[in-house]
Amino acid sequence: MLSENEVERLKEQGKKFFIACNQDWMAYDFDAEIGRDLSFIEAQSNLLEKIKIFLETSKDNNLTKKQINELDLKPMAEEEVKELQEKDKERFFDKKNIERVKEHILKHKVIFVCGNTGSGKTSTCFKLLEMFKPIKTCYIYDHPMPELVEPYGFKILYGFEELEYMSKICLYIDEPQLVLPTIDRRNNDKMQKLMSLCRQRDITLIFSTSNTRYINKAIESYIDGWFIKDINFEQVKQGSYIKQIIKRNAVIDPVGFSMAPNKVLYSNINNKSLEGKYNISETNYYSEDLSKAYGLD
Q1: Other CB atoms closer than 10 Å to residue 217's CB: what's the count?
Q2: pTM value > 0.85
Q3: How far apart are CA 287 and CA 6, in angstroms?
Q4: CATH class of the region 98-292
Q5: CA distance 289 to 151
Q6: Assign residue 22 a region: left if phi > 0, alpha if psi is -120 to 50, beta otherwise?
Q7: Where along the chain do its domains lie?
Q8: ∠35-39-45 over CA atoms, to 5°?
Q9: What pLDDT, in 10s, does the model give residues 240-296?
Q10: How far apart are CA 226 and CA 112, in angstroms?
Q11: For residue 201, how many C-alpha atoms fall within 13 Å in the half-sphere facing its CB?
Q12: Concatenated DSSP letters for 225-271?
């Protein structure tokens, strides 16, 4: 049985392994992959094999299988551990930074980003896309100006029929109620079918919307992660999950709820302890042109 100190040592060794391969270690779930019921040597060997398999299947990996197999988990010198921890501190140990919960976000299959027009929904969605880029090919549905997004590694999905032949991708859809019209007033069948199909194909969906009133209980049941920007509480549907989240996190009166553009209220359906307000920075390349292209945010 591993001690907590031994688990931390394995994590540090694993991070160094990723860095040696020029890969982002934050895309890897060390807590889930480290075998705590093994001896240290067994757990080290087991973790090494799991990381190698992960890297072999990563689309961003530039090493050959032979090169990966030649690498090994090596103990870290004390100064190396301190240096790695200092680099991580800003994005990982800051409890108010959204990067701290990145490993949890990457497990989501359906994400909803909600907020008023101009609240920063688009910049938040691009930040989320960047998180998924190391592990999934990222698509944007029918972006009106492909020349703006393609240079940053994003692909355009022009029709949902293309999803028939896809798996393990991340797809961003702005204002889904406009591209997936409601079949009847009580039930958005097309949207539910899309979410069900994507869950089966390991496709992550990121939706952004300024109108939350079409989100019914059936749709809510598919959503793993909520990202709430500045929004008018009184215009949110009564009894909705969004309203419940805001009530739980309002300082005094939920009617006065507001969020700055660089803030987001995050709720994880599977881990309520992570719910709260976080800082969220824009990607290095983000500009208002990416938002104005839609003419909505």
Answers
A1: 11
A2: no
A3: 44
A4: alpha beta
A5: 14
A6: left
A7: 4-93, 98-292
A8: 65
A9: 999 999 999 887 788 888 888 899 999 999 998 889 999 998 888 887 777 755 554
A10: 5
A11: 20
A12: EEEE-S--GGGSPTT-HHHHHHHHH-SS-GGG----TTEEEEEETT-
